[in-house]
């Protein structure tokens, strides 16, 4: 016999117990049709008193097929099932107690299993809806409370449809909850029903009846002295960074002096030191500017640079390869490490320039920047750097002012976060590129990574090998340059999981990127910014010389720049020159820290006068230059001395027309140049014949 959970109802009424079988079970066991049962119900209904016709369970009239209709389903009392021959319907069900026991055995396990499956699915689907009501509670407890709320909601949904008595749902759930060991929900059936009753009869919500036990209860709070809290918080916020035990000992001493009761060590931990509020209030004061306080500081998210040249960041770091042997100023052998001052483009990550030195100094910034400008061919929109040693020297002040005059924005900062891009790059460079160098000795001493440092034995053998191989400054510089260039040509996809599908190198990315915010720079401006400079005096009709490393280089200003020759004779000017190419230099005059360009001058090498290789042609060229300068000098002199007066108009037939016209022009103010003004429509002359449209011209003239 296939018994289902809703096939039998055991009804207790006025101390009498009756057993009711479902119509489905009757039809299956007895083999009767639905029409037969409908006819039997109508016959039985005829014997029921009129005032009881609306009852769910009809009274026993003594006739066959007593029936009831609870929850819209037909049930028949087992005691009123006929047992006449030849069908013997009643005998088919056997003993009533045996039938009930069999029904319970078959359905209890099935019902509980199905109920447990439904409960778990409901909890998984709905518990997240209640998480927000328990913010601020430990995550494990928070989830348990939310799941308990979903269990109560499950009971509210199932209480009217669950088969059996009104307590059946709660009894079955108590077995399941005992098995699953849910917290914050009672296991007793009566307590479960009580939760549902509260929700039905009051205006409470589920989250108000499911809460942490003893929440807000302060019966076990032993120490409420605010002075002790103040002492502990003050010592925890100290920049001395005292340990917890030291603070507790100091407070215990203070309690002895003032007669206060001493809290236990565990009380300090639970009540003060382990509380999030304590860490929030004291972390910044306790840790200061160290990285441990960063998680308690707010920050502003920024977009990365969108184009190459939007921003260059400049910073210096030690190159972590083994020290090489060199000599100090007194000739003593010493061990030194190289430092790299790098210029990094924020958008592409390309290292455009660098300067390898033993320490940051006043020239390292300019040299690294010079290399970057030479490689890139432009000036960036903005440069961010720290206040490097020598930033306030006259040379660097002048360089900074000249960069700003060309439109570059310079920002000096002492915060690593303001140039975070290049700061992070140092770590990436160490872990990706330097790691593969045989001379790499590991990261800085503050690094806590497991692979940050080589073993002492390995470092000792590395020092011996490098010394034996004659590892000197030249090899160290070559190694550093090779590593930096290797980085520039390393694809991001080779080492970055974030950019695993980006197969470009920093160098390629910089070259291909748009440079819409950069500043164009000419060779003359490059010389003004970065070339070496020396002051000299122009003598001998535009001649001067400079001395570089003990060697004199002579220069003659071209006669085409006669204005410079005439106006700066015996005057001090600034000469900028490139150490790698002294064939051409540039002359400047000072305007504060700025320079105003005068002209460019070619080198004049000394003429060979004697012997078979005498350069007589060059002598003639030099003399020709001198003659032309002399002629221009005489012409300018005569023009100033002669002066043209009104007598030029009174010479009669001997009048010089050029002089007369010149006097009239000067007298009438016609010597001034009047700018040409455009006429309406003359901008159409800018178009080619194919582009010219007569209709547009006529419309513009309103014809």
From TrEMBL:
<dbReference type="InterPro" id="IPR036397">
    <property type="entry name" value="RNaseH_sf"/>
</dbReference>
<protein>
    <submittedName>
        <fullName>Integrase core domain</fullName>
    </submittedName>
</protein>
<feature type="domain" description="Integrase catalytic">
    <location>
        <begin position="297"/>
        <end position="514"/>
    </location>
</feature>
<dbReference type="InterPro" id="IPR001584">
    <property type="entry name" value="Integrase_cat-core"/>
</dbReference>
<dbReference type="InterPro" id="IPR012337">
    <property type="entry name" value="RNaseH-like_sf"/>
</dbReference>
<dbReference type="GO" id="GO:0003676">
    <property type="term" value="F:nucleic acid binding"/>
</dbReference>
<dbReference type="GO" id="GO:0015074">
    <property type="term" value="P:DNA integration"/>
</dbReference>
């Amino acid at each position: 016999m296939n018994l289902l959970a809703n096939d039998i109802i055991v009804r207790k009424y006025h101390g009498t117990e009756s057993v009711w079988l479902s119509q489905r079970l009757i039809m299956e066991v007895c083999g009767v049709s639905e029409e037969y049962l409908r006819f039997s119900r109508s016959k039985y209904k005829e014997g029921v008193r009129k005032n009881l016709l609306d009852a769910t369970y009809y009274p026993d009239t003594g006739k066959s097929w007593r029936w009831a209709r609870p929850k819209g389903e037909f049930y028949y009392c087992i005691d009123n099932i006929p047992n006449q021959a030849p069908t013997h319907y009643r005998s088919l069900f056997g003993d009533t107690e045996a039938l009930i026991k069999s029904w319970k055995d078959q359905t209890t396990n099935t019902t509980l299993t199905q109920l447990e499956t439904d409960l778990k699915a409901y909890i998984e689907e709905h518990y997240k809806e209640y998480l927000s009501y328990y913010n601020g509670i430990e995550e494990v407890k928070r989830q348990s409370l939310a799941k308990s709320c979903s269990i109560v909601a499950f009971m509210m949904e199932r209480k009217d449809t669950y088969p059996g008595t009104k307590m059946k749902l709660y009894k079955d759930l108590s077995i399941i909850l005992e098995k699953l060991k849910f917290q914050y929900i009672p296991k007793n059936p009566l307590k479960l029903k009580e939760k549902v009753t509260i929700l039905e009869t009051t205006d409470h919500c589920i989250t108000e009846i499911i809460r942490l036990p003893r929440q807000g209860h302060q019966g076990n709070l032993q120490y409420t002295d605010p002075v002790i809290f103040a002492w502990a918080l003050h010592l925890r916020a100290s920049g001395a960074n005292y340990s917890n035990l030291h603070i507790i000992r100091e407070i215990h001493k203070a309690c002895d002096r003032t007669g206060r009761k001493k809290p236990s060590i565990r009380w300090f931990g639970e009540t003060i030191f382990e509380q999030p509020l304590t860490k929030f209030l004291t972390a910044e004061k306790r840790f200061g500017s160290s990285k441990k306080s960063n998680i308690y500081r707010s920050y502003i998210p920024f977009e990365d640079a969108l184009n190459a040249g939007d921003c260059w960041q400049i910073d210096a770091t030690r190159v972590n390869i083994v020290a090489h042997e060199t000599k100090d100023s007194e000739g003593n052998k010493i061990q030194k490490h190289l430092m790299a001052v790098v210029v990094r483009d924020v958008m592409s990550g390309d290292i455009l320039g660098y300067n390898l030195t033993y320490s940051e100094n006043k020239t390292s910034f300019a040299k690294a920047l010079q290399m970057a400008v030479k490689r890139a061919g432009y000036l960036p929109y903005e440069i961010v750097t720290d206040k490097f040693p020598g930033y306030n020297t006259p040379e660097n002040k002048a360089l900074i002012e000249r960069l700003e005059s060309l439109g570059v924005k310079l920002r000096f900062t002492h915060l690593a976060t303001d140039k975070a891009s290049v700061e992070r790059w140092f770590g990436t460079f160490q872990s990706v590129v330097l790691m593969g160098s045989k001379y790499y000795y590991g990261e800085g001493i503050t690094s806590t990574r497991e692979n940050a440092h080589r073993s002492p034995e390995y470092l000792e053998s590395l020092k011996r090998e490098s010394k034996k191989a004659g590892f000197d400054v030249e090899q160290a510089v070559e190694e550093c340059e090779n590593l930096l260039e290797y980085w520039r040509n390393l694809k991001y996809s080779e080492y970055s999981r974030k950019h695993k599908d980006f197969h470009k190198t920093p160098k390629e990315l910089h070259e291909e990127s748009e440079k819409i915010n950069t500043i164009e720079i000419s060779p003359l401006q490059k010389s003004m910014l970065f070339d070496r400079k020396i002051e000299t005096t122009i003598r001998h009709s535009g001649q001067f010389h400079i001395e570089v490393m003990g060697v004199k280089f002579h220069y003659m200003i071209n006669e085409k720049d006669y204005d410079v020759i005439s106006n700066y004779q015996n005057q001090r000017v600034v000469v900028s020159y490139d150490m790698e190419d002294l064939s051409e230099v540039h002359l400047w005059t000072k305007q504060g820290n700025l320079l105003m360009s005068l002209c460019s001058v070619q080198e004049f090498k000394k003429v060979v006068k004697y012997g078979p290789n005498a350069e007589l042609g060059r002598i003639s060229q030099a003399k020709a230059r001198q003659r032309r300068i002399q002629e221009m000098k005489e012409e300018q002199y005569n023009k100033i001395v002669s002066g043209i007066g009104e007598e030029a108009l009174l010479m009669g037939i001997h009048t010089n027309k050029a002089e007369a016209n010149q006097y009239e022009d000067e007298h009438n103010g016609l010597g001034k140049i009047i700018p040409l003004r455009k006429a309406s429509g003359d901008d159409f002359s800018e178009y080619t014949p194919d582009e010219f449209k007569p209709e547009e011209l006529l419309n513009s003239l309103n014809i």
